Amino acid sequence: MTETTEAKPRKLIPISQPISVLPSDIARLYTHLHPIIILTVYYFCFPYLVADPVSVLFKALAPLAHLQITYCVVCLPQSSGGSTPSPTSSKGPTTRKRVQFAQSAKSKPTSVGSRITPAIISLLLCLSLSAPLLTVILILFGAPLTTHFWHNLLCATHISLLGVLPLFYVHGVNARMWREISGACLPFDEVWGGLVGAVVGAWLGAVPIPLDWDREWQKWPVTIVTGTYLGWFVFRFAGEYFLRGKRIEFD
Amino acid sequence: MARTSPENREPVFTPIAQNGPATASSKYKDITSQFNDSKDRGRPDSDIQTINRRKEIQFKASHFLLIGFFLWIFLLHAIGIYFFTKGFLLTRLVLDYKSECTAPPFDLGKQSPRTYTDGCWHPKTFDKAVIIIIDALRYDFTVPFSGIPHHFHNALTVLDETARQSPGNAFLLPFIADPPTSTLQRLKGLTTGTLPTFIDIGSNFAGTAIEEDNLLGQLRNAGKTLVHLGDDTWHSLFPGYFDANLTHAYDSFNVWDLFTVDNGVTEHLIPLLSTENTGKWDVLFGHYLGVDHAGHRYGPDHPATNSKLREMDDVLRKVITLMDDKTLLVVMGDHGMDVKGDHGGESDDEVEAALWLYSKKGVFGRGHNGKMEPPPTAKERPVGQIDLVPTLSLLLGMPIPFNNLGAPIAEAFVGPGKPDWQRLASVNALAGAQISRYQHEYSRSRGLAESIFSLPQGYWADGLQSWKEAVQHKERGDLYATAFEKFSQYQQETLRICRGLWATFNIPSMLEGIFILASAVGVVAVFARSSGPSTAEVVPVYLSHMTVLGAIGGASVLLIATILPGMVAKDTSLLGLAAGGIGGFGWVFLELQKGFSLPFPRSLWGWLAVVFTLSQSIGFASNSYTIWEDEIMLCFLGTFAFVAFAASIRQEFFIERILGMSQAAAFFVLSRLASLSRLCREEQMPYCRSTYYASTNSSTSAPWQLLIPLITAILLPVVIKTYYQGTRSYQGSATLWVGFALRMGLLGSAIFWVLDAADDNEWLKMSQGSLKMIKIVLARLLLGSAFVVGTTTFVYGNPCINVEVTPEANADTNDGVVTKPKSVKVFGYANVHGTRYFLLVTNWLLAIFLLQKPMGGGAIGILAVQILALLEIIDTNDLSQTAIGPVVLGLLGSFHFFKTGHQATLSSIQWESAFVALRTVTYPWSPLLVVLNTFGAQILTTVAVPLIALWKQPPKKPRLLSDVAKALATLLLYYAVINLATTMWAGWLRRHLMLYRIFSPRFMTAAAVLITVDLVGILVAIGSLRWNFASIAEVFGWS
């Protein structure tokens, strides 16, 4: 068969831009402090987590959500599109340049009060949408189907609070953006890096489970949660400083 | 690779209309002429025919050469595995000779009564014997301990007590087991007197029954009544040996149960010892499992072990009081246990068992070494477990079994008081002479040089010399002592050499094998993954160089081996052959280097394939990752589906995006669904629950499981049809084969399994014989339609297309009469190669489906849908040139191997599948059926691998054959890397505790899979392309 000139590109051309932290000193300070605080707290909670995963994971939800909301409000530019999906997003992707996400917020930080509401909405979206979806994905990857329901749900909730909550905050529920997110074609920045890190970390967290070391911490889902936190921590910084602007390419 | 946009990949293809009437003679003539290359257009028909003819010959030649090249790869794999196995798998030839009562190997003159009543080779001491095995009775359980005692200390005291108080009645000795220390292997050693190796080359196909000469066989020959109580392993080793009325066997499987077996043994043992019952039996075997199970469950240092040992103590005291003085009592452990209470390996704790002999006659002694008391530790004065066989044989007046390598235990023959050197020398002479007989026969059968036994033969000659002198000088007792020494030395030295032959790894041979396998991986990697000229161009060069150099290499080594027989063995010429072949490939590759790129991954997909293969390979170094391989496969398949889903979202065209996303999601869900079918291996306990059969300790299906094949039979043809309809390919052969034959075949298989369950559970009021016959006829019918009818359909069938020709017509329009040109429509054009080739996959699917148990049938059905989903993912994301497609197929094969109720252990082989279509074992069909059952998943994925390159490709795409060859080579590469890794780890960990349980079976599985996949890939996948291409070329012309 002869080649035909292709009228349209076959693959999605991403228009998303890397997110920058708000240009205030407190934002720059807290964005570095935040992961360190979370990991330190995690480190001290670890023995209790090993002893009783379900109750510790559950009790940690509120503080974690609180810290993540604080982080969003203090450091991140909020979505300009809000909750209205862009009507033109599916029409001409190549012609539109959607840089206003980062731009608009960067220009003038809004008041703290007006930023808390979207952060709360992001939290609700994250709990109601991404946590159940991630639970299903965990089970598909081989998590226990019948026996560890709460373990799975709480593990998925932690992954989504860490990785997905800030994405809701900065990208809203814009359909085009979420297609790029689920197609994994966002450019690296600290928010996207955090999600990639949480997913990669959770995947690697499964590695020590089968080993016959007979350690208490090998039990489900301690290693997965630990991998999530460590991966999130590492890739957050890597995404911001080493990989910034780069995108994951499949081909 | 340039790809046409989806608009051009419409399922219906309309070639440019051509003038001229359509001839009825050739249905496809119109399109044939359309599809010839543009440069050929306008030439006369005869020219086109000539060109087509030339292209056909070209295709057939490259196809033929390709098969030759793949055969070379198969040869390299086979040679590599052969050399590694030769050095690694310790094998022993089982000789079928039996010792005769009337033919002692050593002439003792009048001292040999040669009758069963007085004793065969040596006068007998006892008429009857009670032989009690306390499984896992470690030596330190039986001797007093003065420090801070563990739970296992000082609980079983009767043995030491009697041996100390009345040395003439009893003795207690450390009893060293030869690894592997699993009960089955140990019982073989304890009854044949030889060293069981991992594989004993015998003449039986599946059974575990001992066929070589053994103590029980000799006893049965002599007309003794044997009774067995306890562990049912004895019955698989000695079927039909025991008196059916008195024998009571118990399941040895349930290690959590400490009491059923033991209580059963004691309950039946005690009454048999009473005076009114002693006449009913001659030799009584009791096998207690409680101590072993307590060890497995709690470990030795636990109160449960203590109470089990105390219970044994009570039982033995009772037995002693009940025994008469014609009876010999033997108590022994078949192996020990490690600190965790497990066994199987070769650590000191596992091999140091205890042996205690007792009789009321007072015939035992200690005199020969001056030590009266039982050794305080197992390191002093140990005897081998193989020594039991000659000891018992001579005490009971039996001939020593032919294959025995042990020596009579001195304490049993030395006599009380002053040592009886003459008696010791004569029993050792008998044992030694039998070993000498055996050693000659073994050397002869295996072609061993007699020279390797020259050292022990020297001892033997010395011993004979002393013996002769002792006979002449009756007054000099010390000469008998010398003869005894020499005969013992002869036995020990021969045993050492035999151990060397059977238990020493041949490292150079293993390294040769690994080197060849590694080079073969390199060859396949370069061939499969370096982009460059098409295989049609390079294969002839490779093939000629490999063949010529290989022939030179092999022939020259063979010549050296013939001229200098001592220097190299003949099979070294295979090494020359392999080296020549690899050298030839390397030579060509270096010459053509510029045309190639090195085989490194160039995209995330390529890296994913590499990560899957390598991480799995590295994982095989750990017993945990080997044990949990099934779960790891699920995680990898999920990862692929996850990434494929994300990649599909990036598709700009809506249809492709939805297709890719839905197929990835389906693939993901189906993997998890299939993972619900599990057959756990022992080591996965207690974190795994088997679902493959009705319950964890049954091997039959539950009634509800019979629905699974039925549901599969209803759904699968419908699902396959939807994949065909996507490209309007549900035409021609597909309607008949998928719509009717496959559906009926699957239904037939479902019925077969219902009948099988009816047979097992006696649901039908019908004689067993007629039900069996119906089953076998049905199974043969189904296999016949899969292979005979199916292959015929595949070879002679038309492509799954439909051609509609609209003749030239005049149509009245507003502008007047317009002549509408003749038009030709081809339905199913977009996937001509794929849909036709998939029919072959369904043939194999049908056969493999029949041979799986109901649960496995469901897994195979899921596998078929997953293959189709994978093909759609590969197509929509344009991945047919990357390694990911074949590697994921390989992962699917490995995954569904577990999902069809298999594990990488010898015990999980479903031997009964040989009898699905056969009444008795028939070569070669029975092994083939077992292979189809065991490696069904891998075979099905291998048959499907050409589809990676063929699915939805245009009929005359250039280099299509080359693409298929590379896809198959990539799949072989995956299995070859897995095989190389397991081979290397098994060799490296050859002293590991888990070698026999985990690493060695995994290596054997990988090697068997590689050989199977090689053969199926060459003979079926590549071989059948000829008919597929020819059938499509008949319509569209040769490319």
Structural write-up:
- The complex is a heterodimer of chains A (251) and B (1039).
- Chain A is mainly α.
- Chain A is built from eight helices and no strands.
- Chain A has helices spanning 25-51, 53-75, 100-107, 112-140, 149-171, 175-182, 190-205, 222-241.
- Mean pLDDT of chain A is 86; it is low at 1-6 and 82-107.
- By secondary structure, chain B is α/β, with parallel strands linked by helices.
- Chain B contains 34 helices and 15 strands.
- Chain B has an eight-stranded mixed sheet, with helices on both faces.
- In chain B, a hairpin with a 2-residue loop joins strand 13 (809-813) and strand 14.
- In chain B, helix 16 (507-529) packs antiparallel against helix 32 (960-988) and helix 25 (768-796) packs antiparallel against helix 26 (832-851).
- The longest helix of chain B is centred in the N-terminal third of the chain and has 44 residues, at 45-88.
- Chain A: The chain crosses the membrane at residues 32-51, 116-143, 149-170, 191-211, 217-238.
- Chain A: Residues 101-112 have a biased composition (Polar residues).
- Chain A: Pathway: Glycolipid biosynthesis; glycosylphosphatidylinositol-anchor biosynthesis.
- Chain A: Keywords: Endoplasmic reticulum, GPI-anchor biosynthesis, Membrane, Transmembrane, Transmembrane helix.
**Spatial order of the strands in the main sheet of chain B?**
7-6-8-3-9-10-4-11
User: What's the β-strand tally of chain B?
Assistant: 15
Q: Give the helix level of chain A as a range of percent.
A: 55-70%
End-to-end separation of chain B: 17 Å
- Can you tell me the overall shape of chain B? elongated
Average predicted local confidence, pLDDT of chain A: 86
- List low-pLDDT spans of chain A: 1-6, 82-107
Main beta-sheet annotation of chain B: 8 strands, mixed
Subcellular location (chain A): Endoplasmic reticulum membrane
Biased composition (Low complexity) (chain A): 82-93
Pfam family, one (chain A): PIG-F
Pathway (chain A): Glycolipid biosynthesis; glycosylphosphatidylinositol-anchor biosynthesis
